[in-house]
Amino acid sequence: MDQPMRPCLVLVAGGAGTGKTGLSQALVRRVPNAILLDKDRLLGAWVDLVLRAAGEAIDRDGRYYWQDVRPQEYRTLEMVAYDHLELGKVVVVDAPLRPELSDADWVGRVRRECESRQVGFLAAWLIVSPETARRRMAARAEPRDHWKLANWEEFLRRQPYDPPTGAGLILENEDEESLKSALEKTLAAMAAAASAQEGFVP
Asked: Partners of 93 in the beta sheet?
């Protein structure tokens, strides 16, 4: 078992099918004081309920989701992350986060929130080929992917897989070997980000 780390907010972001959950879970297994905040596990059923109540399709691609539901979903995730940072945790957030990491104001604000708590901040972005992502989405057969798979070219136009400007660590995740490499690179970057802050004794 690896040693505890100083508190750090770690964003494991990327497009659908890039393997965010696999990397996030691997990170939490390696860091004893880490906690995983998986957006879909925490808030997925709530989002589905809200969409159903509004008469909307159960996916994450409609206007109502993006304009009304998603902002509250992500704000809730962010507030829970700050609570755990203040408890001395390494917080690993598993979520797409492309609009957020493309927004310099958002990145700057979250970074300042971390600095005010004397904790580290790391934004990692996973990349795979669109073909790999499509194959993984077809295999997992989740309702939230139905629109994406049925409108693939439009989906790629709306949500490309290239890294946003706010991502500080870019990681390939095409297969098991690249996942192992991504894990080690992320652990090293987490340690560096966390050690830049003071105030935590494991």
From this structure: 11, 37
